[in-house]
Write a structure and sequence with these properties.
Belongs to the EPSP synthase family. MurA subfamily. The strands form 6 sheets. A 4-stranded mixed beta sheet has the order 22-23-1-24, sandwiched between helices. Strands 2-15-17-16 form a 4-stranded mixed beta sheet. A 4-stranded mixed beta sheet has the order 4-5-3-14, covered by helices on one side. The protein has 2 domains: 219 residues, Alpha-beta prism (UDP-n-acetylglucosamine1-carboxyvinyl-transferase, Chain); 207 residues, Alpha-beta prism (UDP-n-acetylglucosamine1-carboxyvinyl-transferase, Chain). By secondary structure, it is α/β, with parallel strands linked by helices. It starts with a strand and ends with a helix. The mean pLDDT is 95. Helix 3 packs parallel to helix 5 and helix 7 packs parallel to helix 9.
């Protein structure tokens, strides 16, 4: 097991290029198995969640050709096993996308109950609602979810809540269902749109992705395609916040500025300077930032996956801020770690009241989940002392070459074995 060791106090300066969107890639890889012809997917992020899903796809019989770290060719025509269950697939939340994909393709699928980060209840009731509306029967036992249908038939579905997972999963199954499906109160996140665009590139008939209503006319089969995944808005947002928090000056390249509007707006409210270009955003801050209030909401609102990062920034901002988490109820666990560094944060229900402090001290920290782990690294970058962040396997689920990209921006950060005192001492001697 490894950890990050960080000596902060230096502004991040330079340019960083954003990888493909993990959340889009997971849905797109699942969709790829629905086609019985080769599908080439480019701009894949090289992160552990993607490698786990690719291995699972390979394990059920699909041909997976890894062209390079960011490109793969998949042929689902050789799939013979429609039960996906291994110790690794249980660790990622997006394993459930294989349910919709294999249900659409085979009308029968079994997938291990999904895992992922422990950030709160993420029920699959809306997934079940979507599948049942299309004519499937669901059985959950022995930590497996089984879905089966004699025939999938298009239907009119109104989701009780806007759910990214349920929107993508139902869309996958409905693509190969008979007739027309209308999905209302759907998620509008960019990665939902990207999955729909990918399916359309294979011959699906999906309209309305990115709006409140998605209309799908089922097709008999899908054909081969080549597709490039959109940039990762959460990775981009993380570097934007890190630049502002460290009083740095960073050009974040290979992103879609439209996707970043909620994040950019909050940074501007704190006093950071944000400059937009066609496919890049520059963030810089010269002085201590100001307080603001943040509430997480479905897209186009402020993303829940950016809440830990903005909370960390506000922990060092001037004045009192309030961050309200409206998506996941357990997403403030990381504030206990920030408290070890001297942050003054009081959690009341689904809100955190933050009294900004001038500086954070170094501490030994543990990542409770993917995005909180990235936030703790940002905190370490802001402290003038040495900090250690362990359980970085969470971070590596969603950030490609995290420490390398930070090093290129001037950060003093290294990945070393946990409790390796010799390597820790070498790091401390090097950074002074």
């Amino acid at each position: 097991m490894n950890e990050f060791v960080i000596k902060g106090g230096k502004p991040l300066v330079g340019e960083v290029s954003i990888s493909g969107a993990k959340n889009a890639a997971l849905g797109i890889l699942a969709a790829a198995v629905m086609c019985n012809e080769p599908v080439k997917i480019e701009n894949l992020p090289y992160v552990s969640d993607i490698q786990v899903l690719l291995s699972a796809i390979e394990e059920i019989g699909a041909i997976v050709e890894r062209i390079d770290n960011h490109t793969v060719r998949i042929n689902g025509g050789t799939i013979t096993n429609f039960c996906v269950d291994n110790e690794f697939i249980r660790k990622i939340r997006a394993s459930y996308y294989l349910l919709g994909a294999l249900l659409g393709k085979n009308k029968d699928a079994k997938v291990a109950f999904p895992g992922g980060c422990n950030i709160g209840s993420r029920p699959i009731d809306q997934h079940i609602k979507g599948f049942e509306a299309l004519g499937a029967e669901i059985d959950i036992r022995h930590s497996l979810i089984a879905v089966k249908a004699d025939e999938l038939v298009g239907s009119h579905i109104y989701f009780d809540v806007s759910s990214v997972g349920a929107t993508i999963n139902t869309m996958l199954a409905a693509t190969l269902a008979k007739g027309k499906t209308i999905m209302e109160n759907v998620a509008k996140e960019p990665h939902v749109v990207d999955v729909a665009n990918f399916l359309n590139s294979m011959g699906a008939d999906i309209k309305g992705a990115g709006t409140d209503v998605i209309r799908i006319v089922g097709v008999e089969r899908l054909h081969g395609s080549e597709y490039s995944i959109i940039p990762d808005m959460i990775e981009a947002g993380t570097y934007m916040v890190a630049a502002a928090a460290t009083k740095g000056d960073v050009l974040v390249k290979n992103l879609i500025p439209k996707h970043m509007e909620a994040i950019s707006a909050k940074l501007i409210e704190t006093g950071a300077e944000v400059y937009e270009f066609d496919d890049a955003i520059r963030v810089c801050a010269k002085n201590r930032l100001n307080h603001t209030h943040v509430k997480t909401l479905p897209y186009p609102g402020f993303p829940t996956d950016m809440q830990p990062q903005i909370t960390t920034l506000l922990a060092m901002s001037n004045g009192t801020s309030v961050v309200t988490e409206s998506i996941f109820e357990n997403r403030f666990k990381f504030t206990d770690e920030l408290a070890k560094m001297g942050a003054n944060i009081k959690v009341e229900g689904n809100s955190a009241i933050i009294d900004g402090v001038e500086k954070l001290s170094g501490a030994k920290l543990s990542s409770p989940d993917l995005r909180a782990g990235a936030a703790l690294v940002i905190a370490g970058l802001c402290s003038e002392e040495v900090s250690e962040v362990d359980q970085i396997e969470f971070i590596e689920r969603g950030y490609e070459h995290f420490e390398e990209k930070l090093k290129e921006l001037g950060a003093d950060i290294a990945k070393i074995p946990v409790d390796d005192e010799k390597e820790l001492m070498k790091f401390k001697l090097r950074v002074g």
